[in-house]
Amino acid sequence: MRLRFRFYACALIVMLMLPIFAAACGNDSGKPKVRVGEVARTIFYAPQYVALAKGFFAEQGIDVELQTTAGGDKTMTALLSGGIDIALVGSETSIYVFQQGADNPVINFAQLTQTDGTFLMEREHDGTFDWNDLKGSEFLGQRKGGMPQMAGEFTLRKHGIDPQKDLNLIQNIDFANIASAYASGTGQYVQLFEPQASIFEREGRGKVVASFGVESGRLPYTAYMAKGSYLDEKADVVQKFTNALQQAQRWVANNSAENIADTILPYFKDADRAIVIDAVKRYKEQGSYAIDGVFEQEEWSNLHDVLRTAGELKQDVPLEHLVNNRFAEQAKQTVK
Q: How many CB atoms lie within 10 A of CB 334?
């Protein structure tokens, strides 16, 4: 009788402890859960969707929960408040947080894209293009302080154009509404991400005449980052995450635009396959997808130049202050 009592007592304890064990593991599968917030849902982030679709995160033993937190400010707020564990956002946001004197700085640990992802579209294209054509025109740009706009202005200045004086720069339209504003007739020129640029070309609404990614050079444009405390406490999880990303980056580098498009289409349910292929092809051809997550000093310095030109840099921030390359370097060396 006493033995049976002990058995039932032990069974009861185990049953009561199961939810605690499950919570500690992150989910019912026993895999640690990693909450990732992406600043946008875009073909520009193709390697991330490849890692999810091909099961690379799962193979590493982690469960990635992806959510779209539209806008850099919202994404960073979610990260700092604990709503997400890892943010996929422009590296400039980590500098902004640092400049505000954060006690627990946000650290970049894996790079996803290495160029700007926007293109210059001209509404009335006659077959030729010169940057001087923009002078005096109505230019529909991106949000002030965001990397697309800063890379755009950096490029314009490189070509002798003062964005504030030489053209009518429109910046009061939300990111989500820029494409529709252009479609309704606003702007002679517009700065667009893919696939919207390819969609408008097929619809005859304009012609892509230049790439801001090519013009502004290599940048740590979009990266995964987390609070320093998370990297310390969850180093094994972060390494597994970076390993999966490295596997996806190599897969993207070694596969055709068609294969990549077919793999990521479930994340763009309403997208036309041909449009996705065109968008992926453009990004691959200009080297937008990083082949590994390692941050290079030259890219970090170029980011400073872009921020400085836009008047958004209060002080230079050494790469080692806000970048931890340890995870990406290990993944680069060990993941085949």
A: 10
Q: Tell me the C-alpha to C-alpha distance, in Å, between residue 182 and each of 39, 123, 179, 323.
A: 22, 9, 5, 37
Instruction: Decide the pairing of beta strands 86-89 and 207-211.
Output: unpaired
In degrees and rounded to multiples of 5, residue 119 shows phi and psi of -130, 150
Q: Quote the distance between the C-alpha of residue 275 and its chain's center.
A: 20
Is the CB of residue 44 less than 8 Å from the CB of residue 222? yes
Question: C-alpha distances in angstroms, 198 versus 122, 132, 156, 291?
Answer: 13, 24, 22, 24
Buried-exposed string 146-174: b where 16+ CB fall within 10 A, e elsewhere:
bbbbbbbbbbbeeeebebeebbebbeebe
How far does the chain reach from its first CA to its final CA, in angstroms? 58
Instruction: For the chain, list the domains and their CATH numbers.
Output: 31-115+219-334 (3.40.190.10), 118-216 (3.40.190.10)
pTM above 0.85, yes or no: yes
- How does pLDDT run along the chain (336 residues), one tens digit per residue? 333 333 333 333 333 333 333 333 445 568 899 999 999 999 999 999 999 999 999 999 999 999 999 888 899 999 999 999 999 999 999 999 998 887 788 999 999 999 999 999 999 999 999 999 999 999 999 887 788 889 999 999 999 999 999 999 998 888 778 999 999 999 999 999 999 999 999 999 999 999 999 999 999 999 999 999 999 999 999 999 999 999 999 999 999 999 999 999 999 988 999 999 999 999 999 999 999 999 999 999 999 999 999 999 998 999 999 999 999 999 999 998
The C-alpha atoms of residue 9 and residue 288 are separated, in whole angstroms, by 59
Which residues partner with 121 through β-bridges? 190, 208
Furthest CA-CA distance within the chain: 94
